[in-house]
């Protein structure tokens, strides 16, 4: 092992106040990285996931829902800055409906369950060191949100970026914060433990956690799902959806031939020669939504038996130390995926859910849809699609990638409820009361152009 490189990295983490358990986890993956581990999962070593139940077939009583809701906590992953959309703050602060951010809608969903079920359902956010302050400032508008005895958040661990060629620490005096990175959302389990939140949840009588991304408003707290997981007896469960051609690049669950365990295979873990097989929708029918469930005591036991190191598969993330500067040094970020924990637990399972539980916002294409009349927000703060298949939106990345550019060109959101697809090529700005019907394409004019008020685009 590169003793000098690891020693300096550990010292940097110690000086930075990182918990010893998190440092031990980093040490484990440093060894994996140095040994050449890639986390690749070959098609020859796995079988497709088949024969799983669908959530629509659940049969649970109102009493079961209530009892499960009493002992379930909601955890939202909230560490992302939305840098892919040009943001420098928590993406969950982004407005997705008039005067409502992701955070506002999540709070509304939680409050609705509290009121209808008469429970004190906690919601706890896993922030990064970059999203903690902004998030808590926004949540201060909801003084009743925190549950007595529990925090509103815990902070994801951080680790140093490593030079790709030597695995030594990278130095970046222009912005020393960029010398650090989060260890992927697989750090959820370590962060829960070292923050003390895991023990506090158990001490307060909670048994289960429902986890999802903050930018996925479809993953609202659902007492029926809570009752299903409680009755399943499983220590861990993943929600999956049927794949479409748009989902071939996402992670999917497979069954490992050697031991029959369900495992998560991310795109980055698929060998190039297996890409076609992995993308075969008739073979691998489900994708992983990143909505998951686990038994809090089962997690505590697993961490204890493994000395705090669950040993999730390594994901090597190669980047520039400054993502905005392609000439900056090439670095490696050591990451893991939280969904990979499915292979840690004996008896882990999966359940198929409707697409309505998967509404992530990763690009401004997704944001336009969510802001449009394709979706409505109910009194329960659930986001509902008003059409069977939402239209496919493609906005020119040169002019619509960042939120600033997007908002400047869409001062008003077009009606998309009658659209099948909407493609914008070039630099277009949209006036009020624009309607898109059927399939619409705006071609690049070679110069800035605008769509006049009350215009109907496309044809049925």
Can you walk me through this structure?
With 460 residues, the chain is of the alpha/beta class. It has helices spanning 3-15, 20-34, 62-70, 102-117, 132-139, 188-194, 197-203, 223-232, 275-278, 296-305, 364-371, 397-400, 403-409; strands at 46-48, 72-78, 95-97, 100-101, 123-127, 153-155, 159-160, 162-163, 180-181, 208-213, 236-242, 252-256, 262-265, 286-295, 315-320, 330-335, 349-352, 375-377, 383-385, 392-395, 415-424, 428-430, 435-442, 449-451, 456-457. The protein folds into two domains: 3-357, Spore Coat Polysaccharide Biosynthesis Protein SpsA, Chain A (Alpha-Beta Complex), CATH 3.90.550; 364-457, Hexapeptide repeat proteins (UDP N-Acetylglucosamine Acyltransferase, domain 1), CATH 2.160.10. The protein is built from 13 helices and 25 strands. Helix 1 (3-15) runs antiparallel to helix 2 and helix 3 crosses helix 8. It is globular. The termini are far apart. The model has no long low-confidence stretch (mean pLDDT 94).
- Low-confidence stretches are none
Name of the CATH homologous superfamily of the largest domain: Spore Coat Polysaccharide Biosynthesis Protein SpsA, Chain A
Please give the radius of gyration in angstroms.
23 Å
Strand line-up across the major sheet:
6-5-2-10-14-11-17
**What's the total number of strands?**
25
Percent of sequence in beta strands: 15-25%
- Total domains: 2
The CATH architecture of the largest domain would be Alpha-Beta Complex
For the record, the CATH class of the largest domain is Alpha Beta
Q: What is the approximate shape?
A: globular
Indicate the CATH topology of the largest domain.
Spore Coat Polysaccharide Biosynthesis Protein SpsA, Chain A
Helix content: 25-40%
Structural classification: alpha/beta
How many strands, which pairing sense, and closed or not: the largest β-sheet? 7 strands, mixed
Output the number of helix runs. 13
Tell me the span between the first and last alpha carbons: 63 Å
